[in-house]
């Protein structure tokens, strides 16, 4: 069993391009307004449009939480200076998710930099998700760097604390979960404390509770998956991004 855990840790290292032991999380100064989770929630019913777009759905929701004008456009189709988008809110959200999935998995990222392409049928890799958040900002200003934290099988508690600190400072945190052998799904942590995290699950469009005890034991119950694998964290501040324009 120890050998299997070591092999799993090495696999996570290879996939994320990060040390298997979590590096200390950069802690930014708290912003003036309340952190994510006390004043904002993903809109109920924002469900991923296909089985492989959970990561892209988390990117769209993160951006909506950090940019009120983008969130308003998703819901109403209206933005100052532009004709009203006549698609339904559900169709608008689905189209944004699918377009985001194309962008994260191609050879060129949103900033025009080369990146490793990834088959969309296999979801969104964590490094591409981090690049997209760097470009669009998510709950941080556009251009804020993001990094991939590998969750070591033996140090789940430390990773939980890193995610909790990030949320407390205003960051929404994409979290990859899966089996003990492979990551299979992405949720977006939008709140939490020492007892439990709150996460948007794109498979249901609902907010789910992830108790610390279950996280530490690798017994999460979210969309059928139990093991935490990666967290995508902002390197800098967590103030909302600039006004969005389509």
Automatic annotation (TrEMBL):
<feature type="region of interest" description="Disordered">
    <location>
        <begin position="17"/>
        <end position="43"/>
    </location>
</feature>
<protein>
    <recommendedName>
        <fullName>Peptidase_C39 like family protein</fullName>
    </recommendedName>
</protein>
């Amino acid at each position: 069993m120890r050998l299997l855990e070591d092999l799993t840790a090495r696999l996570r290292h290879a996939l994320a391009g990060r040390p298997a032991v979590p590096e200390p999380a950069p802690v930014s100064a708290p912003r003036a307004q309340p952190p994510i989770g006390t004043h904002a929630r993903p809109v109920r019913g924002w469900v991923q449009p296909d089985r492989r777009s959970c990561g892209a759905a988390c990117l769209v929701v993160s951006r909506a939480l950090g940019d009120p004008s983008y969130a308003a456009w998703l819901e109403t189709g209206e933005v100052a200076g532009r004709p009203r988008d006549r698609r339904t809110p559900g169709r608008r959200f689905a189209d944004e998710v699918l377009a985001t999935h194309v962008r994260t998995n191609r050879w060129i990222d949103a900033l025009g930099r080369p990146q490793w392409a990834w088959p969309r049928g296999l979801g969104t890799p964590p490094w591409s998700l981090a690049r997209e958040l760097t470009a669009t900002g998510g709950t941080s200003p556009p251009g804020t760097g993001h990094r991939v934290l590998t969750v070591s099988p033996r140090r789940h508690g430390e990773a939980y604390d890193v995610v909790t600190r990030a949320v407390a400072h205003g960051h929404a945190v994409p979290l990859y979960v899966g089996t003990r052998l492979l990551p299979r799904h992405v949720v977006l942590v939008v709140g939490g404390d020492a007892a439990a995290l709150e996460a948007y699950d794109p498979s249901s469009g609902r907010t789910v509770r992830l108790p610390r005890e279950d996280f530490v034991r690798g017994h999460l119950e979210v969309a059928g998956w139990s093991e935490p694998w990666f967290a995508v964290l902002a390197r800098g501040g967590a103030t909302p991004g600039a006004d969005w324009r389509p």
